[in-house]
């Protein structure tokens, strides 16, 4: 399960600071900045670490961004924030919609990779009273990961209306492309590491059963599988139980 994190502000001094008015004046500067971004993202060692780094980098790099968060959006409409730069983000994203008959702006991400909220106080432009109540006037939401039943989304926020222009959108899409690749890469590494650990754990449990029951490896493994199905417990967890019991002897 993904964990929630509070992410402190970070300088990344080698990058321009868009929130302080620094501007990337040409494609070369943008390319160099994205190279630095990619390095920071690919130095992370878990998906949670990648997302914590991504929200910090987003505020540093995206013109107009004052806050940023990453959230998971379910097909059911439920949304949960899993990384953020400061407490205003989960507070705003966790507020219930004031108008239940209006589709939240971020729901449009199921059909398009980028969604703008120009002014949360303008009801005629798909406003969002929950954001307005938190002092957030505009938002730039970008898809990070698309799955059948859920989206992972990075959203940048500003206390000013219409803070995100075409330049911010362009940089945001390039940035999320790097963040998405880094997230996929670290997720695969974590899964492979977990698979190796699981294989070793099951191997230990099989060896314990071979010794205890005087059976061969195939019979020991089959015994584990049958017990897993009978007790409705994952094979990995059952193997860990066998190994832990042996260590406790």
UniProtKB/TrEMBL annotation:
It holds the Pfam family ANTAR. Residues 182-243 form the ANTAR domain. The keyword Ion transport does not apply. Transmembrane segments: none annotated. One of its GO terms (molecular function) is kinase activity. Keywords: Kinase, Transcription, Transcription regulation, Transferase. The keyword Glycoprotein does not apply. This is ANTAR domain-containing protein. It comes from Streptomyces mexicanus.
């Amino acid at each position: 399960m993904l964990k929630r994190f509070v992410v402190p502000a970070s300088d990344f001094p080698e990058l321009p600071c868009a929130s302080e008015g620094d501007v990337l004046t040409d494609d070369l500067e943008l390319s160099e900045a994205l190279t630095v971004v990619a390095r920071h993202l690919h130095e992370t060692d878990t998906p949670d670490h990648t997302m914590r780094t991504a929200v910090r980098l987003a505020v540093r790099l995206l013109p107009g961004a004052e806050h940023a968060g990453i959230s998971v959006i379910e097909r059911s409409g439920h949304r949960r924030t899993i990384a953020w730069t400061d407490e205003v983000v989960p507070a705003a994203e966790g507020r219930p919609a004031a108008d239940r008959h209006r589709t939240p702006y971020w729901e449009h991400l199921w059909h398009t990779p980028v969604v703008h909220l120009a002014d949360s106080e303008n009801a005629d432009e798909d406003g969002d009273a929950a954001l307005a109540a938190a002092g957030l006037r505009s938002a730039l939401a970008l898809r990070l990961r698309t799955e059948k039943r859920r989206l992972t989304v990075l959203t940048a926020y500003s206390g000013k209306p219409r803070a995100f222009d075409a330049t911010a959108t362009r940089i945001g899409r390039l940035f999320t492309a790097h963040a998405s690749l880094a997230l996929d890469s670290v997720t695969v590494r974590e899964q492979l590491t977990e698979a190796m650990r699981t294989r070793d754990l099951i191997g230990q449990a099989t060896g314990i059963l071979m010794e205890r029951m005087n059976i061969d490896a195939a019979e020991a493994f089959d015994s584990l599988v049958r017990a897993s199905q009978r007790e409705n417990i994952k094979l990995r967890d059952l193997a860990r139980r066998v190994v832990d019991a042996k260590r406790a002897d």
